[in-house]
Amino acid sequence: MTILWTSETAAHATGGRATRPFELTGLSIDTRSIGKGELFVALRDVRDGHDFVRDALDKGAAAALVSRIPEGCTEADPLLIVPDVLTALQDLGRAGRARARAKVIAVTGSVGKTSTKEMLRAVLSAQGSVHAAEASFNNQWGVPITLARMPADVDFAVIEIGMNHAGEIAPLTRLARPHVAMITTVAAAHLEAFGSLEGIAHEKASIFEGLEPGGVAVVPEGLGVTPILLAAARAHAAKVLTFGEDKGCDYRMLSARVVGDVTIVKAETMMPAPALTRAGTVPLRPLRRKTLLFKVMSPGRHFALNGLGVLAVTEAVGADPSVAALDMARWQPPAGRGARQRIYLDILDEHQSFDLFDDAFNANPTSLAAALEVLAGAETRDGVGRVRRGRRVAILGDMLELGPDEIALHEAVARLPAMAKVDLVHCVGPRMRALWQALPQEKRGEWYETAPEMVARAQHLVDAGDVVLVKGSKGSKVSLVVDALKKLGQPDAAELFRGKD
To answer: What does this gene product do (predicted)?
Structure first.
């Protein structure tokens, strides 16, 4: 494995003292998943990471980043002792960024950060080596860890940056120093902390403050707060690229057609037109519109728009957007973010099955509306279940951190156009009770205060032939319902029936 840091280079980056020589192949903050050769970072959260250093070293950690010698350890153990662990972690990330040759991309947005990061990983991997954040490593710990884990010789790096409160994004983007910064969208997420969409937009727009000289900003058009984003982009970026459905976008979506589990996108962009002189030299070339066709391996216009932004980023980092468009099919949504799976209830009868959209990781009014549009367009199967008619079923958990209007925002979901095609809605949580009560009686399924209560009813919530969406904020724990629905399936049935649909 690649040696990322030695005791000498890590000590130099952090200003710390190494008790003995070591070599590091990675970093971790979790003893449950730490690998051999990794640096255990003893951060303080609900528990003090110093309490777990001995366990980490016993499990094969090459060293531990600490501010004191922990209980159970001595100077003979491989320790990197620093005044403050979080500051040292940030210093290590800063040093990792400084030595890298990579074109660095930073991504933020109220919806779609992780999916967009993974799209970029997928399309850029065909045009160079890529380093990208794991899972949702997008906070004050995750960003420096991602930078410190970055090999010096990768071609592209994709850094996800999130926020929960004001002033969080700017320090992280200054740490990452991106060549390109992209905002996916701005929506009513974390309203509790910001009070308005405009407040969220200003915070998201601060991602451009860390751009390298000559950097590029990639901005979504068509939002009410787009002027806020564009003003910040023009203040900090040498170039601004826009994407969306409006005329005048640098990357404009003309159509997005859902076919089964795939979204087929037609778009256009401004590209230089070939213009050779008689002498064979290439002068400044006029721009012309070029059509791009690509497919996203998940249904939904929101995924299509994110894909369009990804193509703009590929241009900004000097990759080929036409090749990236062809490679977009390399990406598929991860579990918890819209992935679709068929659950087989009978290993002898493939028709005894239902389709599950697992979107249980995050939720706000915008992302929920997009998910319900996907559900509304999904094809059910009739005549195979107890109910005889396949249904579109939504299982929805609370949307959190929406502020004083949270009850009204939950209730308003009942009036979304997509709800007309949803047959049944089960709800979890005190906030979602407002939606449940606002639904017409024929759409009203079951409501429970907590996800574990609904888990006990899993087999009664769905039927063969149904298409089921599970979505909610992570704190609503509707992922437990996803797990329960998956457990209704027969082991090995998916492999047995693969390719028969």
So the answer is: Involved in cell wall formation. Catalyzes the final step in the synthesis of UDP-N-acetylmuramoyl-pentapeptide, the precursor of murein.
pLDDT of 302 > 90? The answer is no
Tell me the whole-structure pTM to 2 decimals.
0.82
288-311 b/e (C-beta count within 10 Å ≥ 16 → b): eeeebebbbbbbbbbbbbbbbbbb
Tell the CATH topology of 339-497: Protein-Tyrosine Phosphatase; Chain A (3.90.190)
Any idea what the Cα angle at residue 438 is, between residues 432 and 440, rounded to 5°? 125
Query: What's the CATH fold of domain 5-85?
Result: 3.40.1390
360, 479 in Cβ contact below 8 A? yes
Q: What is the pLDDT of residues 50-108, one digit of tens each?
A: 999 999 999 999 999 999 999 999 999 999 999 999 999 999 999 999 999 999 999 99
Question: Binding site annotation covers 115?
Answer: yes
Q: Tell whether 112 is in a known binding site.
A: yes
Return the pLDDT at 286: 53
The C-alpha atoms of residue 144 and residue 94 are separated, in whole angstroms, by 7
Q: Is residue 472 marked as binding? A: no
CB 336 within 8 A of CB 360: yes
Query: What are 253-277's pLDDT values in tens digits?
Result: 999 988 877 889 999 997 654 444 4
**Ranges in the chain annotated CATH 3.90.190.20:** 339-497
Is residue 407 within 8 Å of 433, Cβ to Cβ?
no
The count of C-alpha atoms lying within 13 angstroms of the C-alpha of 366, restricted to the half-sphere facing its C-beta, is 18
113 annotated as ligand-binding? yes
CATH number of the domain located at residue range(s) 100-330 in this protein: 3.40.1190.10
| H or E segment and range at residue 461 | helix 458-461
Taking a C-beta distance cutoff of 8 angstroms, is the pair 433, 427 a contact? yes
110 is known to lie in a ligand binding site = yes
